[in-house]
Amino acid sequence: MILTGLDRLLADPAPLRGRRYGLLSHIPSVTAELVPAHVALAAIADMPQVLFGPEHGYYGVEQDMVPSEDQHDPWTGVLIRSLYGSDPDSLRPTPDAFRGLDLLLVDLQDVGSRYYTYCATALWAVEGALAAGCEVWVLDRPNPLGGEVVEGNLLRPGFASFVGAFPHPVRHGLTLGEVVTLELRRGGRANGWRVWEVEGWRREMLWPQTGRPWIAPSPNMPSFATALVYPGMCLVEGTRVSEGRGTTRPFQLLGAPHLDPMELVRRLDGSALPGVRFVPTYFRPQYQKHAGRHCGGVEVVVTDPAAFRPYRTGVEVLAVLAGLTDPAELWRREPYEFVSDRPAIDLLAGSDALRQRLDAGDGVRGWVESWSEDERRFRDERQGALLYG
Predict the structure, then answer these.
(1) Partner of 48 for a Cys bridge, out of 23, 229, 273, 384, CB 3.0 to 4.6 A?
(2) Which of 88, 28, 78, 27 is nearest to 51 (CA)?
(3) pLDDT of 189-218, one tens digit each?
(4) pLDDT (tens digit, 9 = 90+) per residue, 93-127?
(5) In this predicted structure, what is the pLDDT of residue 327?
(6) What angle do CA 369, 372, 240 make, to 5 degrees?
(7) Rounded to the nearest 5°, which phi and psi values hold at 374?
């Protein structure tokens, strides 16, 4: 049986009683009985003084890059402070945000990809709280993609952003508690925080093996199948091709009005990617890219999760799209997560190497092969931060 950090705290609530605490969490922050974290905590200790909500809002109602406003929780009346507003300063809470608190609890469900913004929100909140003299407890949860596989290039200097805040590979194989542990140790912080570990989780476990129900941590992460392909298919956000937002299968679908599904499948099958197949299809997004238009594309179907390498798959997908699209029409040029001076694809890939290779008509094999050294370095560095196995 899997017990999250929240479950373990609820089973031993004495350390929480009498504390003036805030809680950073969201809709999948629930107990084993599916009770929301702030409601469960208030039942065994004092009410949280303040709630903090990440991107998409505390209740996960906002789409990507839509700011959330401060509000009051309708169930408890407690103030919810948004950590995703209309400017980049809103992403990093200052020590003043924790005034009057002596403890910050962090309970966020991450999905194991560098792009996913909850790790950045968690660490920046932790740093602000520690600067305010506030103790921090991270209530850990499983990494849905497991903790063994590390995949991808390290983020390069000059390419950090909200969708790539740390020099990690895209698939880092860490829980949120381990990410916070690694980054705080990198910063020389040894005191004032602890991680309430998950009981019963092993690094080889993918989400279905945990026995926990999937509760969408963001509007376009509706299932484990979505999380499984996300480390690769999120790269499509950096293009003008739809990544399936506005459909019921975000990140599992990709396409555009100019694409021929059968030709896409023919080229993708030629890449001989392990553990995945591509099904030709058509779809019509209801919002965002190509809203209301008939798109040709593919559905990404994982046939063997153990063999599947999502990031490599996403890179090969971009290589195929580059061969079917005018370079001037391929890349997204609108500001992306408060950044306007670098293309979105560079922020997602963590460098400009992928874009430059594809623009030049070069293959991606050499770049993909270069990941092995980055992956080795990161495995070595993360070793001291591993909390499980």
Answers:
(1) 23
(2) 78
(3) 989 999 999 999 999 999 999 999 999 999
(4) 999 999 999 999 999 999 999 999 999 999 999 99
(5) 84
(6) 60
(7) -60, -45
